[in-house]
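Session log. Operator J.P. requested a structure for one protein chain; no other inputs attached. Running the standard single-chain path with token output.
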Amino acid sequence: MRVSRYLVAIALIAALGLFASACGDDEPTATPVPQQAAATPTPTEAAMMEEKARRVTIDLIDAFPEVLDVSKATAFFIEEVSKLSDGSVTINRVGGPEVTHSLEQFAPTRDGVYDAIATVGAYHTDHTKLGLGENVAANYTRVADNYTPRVECGLYDALEDIYAPLGIQYVGSIAGGWGARLWTIDPVRDVGDLDGVHLRAATIYQPFLHAYGATTTPLQFSEIYPALEKGVIKGLYWGGVGALNGKWDEVIKYQYPDSLAGGGGVSIMFNQDAWDQLSEKQQQAVRDAIKNAAEFYTEFIDGVERNEVAVLGERGIETIPWPEDLKNRWTNDHYDKIIDDFIIAPDPVLGQPLADAIRCVNDIVLPDREVVDEPVTIDLIDAFPTVLDVARSTAFFIEEVNRISNGTVTINRVGGPEVTHSLEQFAPTREGVYDAIATVGAYHTDHTKLGLGENVAANYTRVADNHTPRLQCGMYDALEDIYAPLGIQYVASITGGWGARLWTVDPIREIGDLDGVHLRAATIYQPFIHAYGATTTPLQFSEIYPALEKGVIKGLYWGGAGALAGKWNEVIKYQYPDSLAGGGGIGIMFNQESWDNMSPRQQEAVRAATKTASKFYTEYIDEVERTEVETLAAQGIESIDWPDELQQRWSNDHYDKIIEDFIIAPDPVLGQPLADAIRCVNDIILPDRQ
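Structure written below.
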């Protein structure tokens, strides 16, 4: 660990100052001028100054090479630590198994050669076998929260007690991935087929594999392919993806979906002295970074797992499904034998609490893995035509729902505004003509104006997480309460895009220039645009160009990119980068009965898909927004920069007037919680935009 050297420098300067005082010359001393004493920092200020000053670098050794997908989990964790600690903690990955063999990294970390380690318990069973416990606890085989059950069941507390006597602080695990599975050269259709087969398998898997007559060797990743190629091993039982990166498919012939067992993830442990030198806030930042990394890794690796199984099948690797009795025997032996032999037997005092925690996690996770939901098809109506970039977000969401639900939920996009006008889609969804709708609140203000709230909440004007602030500020909860009496389940929004902006035929250099101008603008924008003397009409996308071409409207205020796709640039002459306000995204809502007919797992899959779709759309549309502004300028559309006072007035009026007129005034009871949530989101995002 390297604590910033400025503390040492300060001490040295102080010492030199004392030395200079002691060795002063004999010249007459001038009468000192009274000086006002410097203000003494309060205890709170002093603590904050010390916290900010203490910058720490942690040297971390990684058990996994960067070629493996699991390394992305550690890389994400490292970035999160820096972000959550406000840069006061830097994790320096000094290397992986190419620096120190994966099975030999524990002792140097304990002894302070490294400050921290990203590893698994199977890689240091010569120090303790109980560390295997984290990977015996199961993971979901879908996108779900693998981290919280481990915290609630006391798994990390039990592991902390186990590692403490070894000079190691167990912090937590980046839990993710489906678990371990089997690949072989020869087919295994019964347990007896493993008799005499030599497999690559970590020490953790010995109890049940050896009971089947197999022999094992714990090779690290880089050693597996040569061992397969030379016939040293005849297969492997490996705790995650790796077959494609490791090129095992060049040798192996069979994969087994029913061999799945175990779980866990990458454990983050610290040398105890290194951990103790972190402040409490820095330690909490590390813990929170693990939680966030587990969420990221679960989402990321789920897609990787599915892709690997599919690609192996395409490459001729035969999939052998097992009968139920073999599948159940494999699963039960995996958990029971490992817990008995490696967790309880070596140390009943420390092992029993860990065993209890493992079984607690598995009681939560395993039943879910074994449930197969009845497939459902959801007919969704889309407010936006496929020609618009925003339609990509809905398309991505549809794919994600199918993926995350393991194919049990299929979203069928029945069409867009060409089937039912964007402003008339809400009622048929409520009545069950459609099961779901992808829309914005501005398109059904005749049913509720409060739905506008999602698009009043700001988005970042860069690639950043727009979804989480809405979740944390309770926006989706407030919208759920608003739509419930209307027979609609508000799920969440696919957030992304910079917000709304102005395009006009004639120049707008001050507010007065809008007086008498007729604009295309959604109902949401009426309160502040009408206050400027403009008039508005809420046209859908396909109606905008004809209205511009015929001179019916003299411009538009539109919530995102669209000028190029709509060919508005053939008529408009001016764009306004400083007119940016609002944000939001596409609200995903369900007919209440259609929502209730799905299982909790399927509902969770839909919610999770809105989050991953938000991430995709934010990244995608950010580039689209930048390209559109630049292309319009290149085509001769003049950009008018507003003075700061005009920009500030536009922004403040946009948010304040809409919240007052459309959120609070129509229904203070339901509107006030939504208004509070909007302001909470904007307090997080707007300062970043400015």
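Operator note: Residues 53-175+268-294 form a domain with the D-Maltodextrin-Binding Protein; domain 2 fold (CATH 3.40.190.170).
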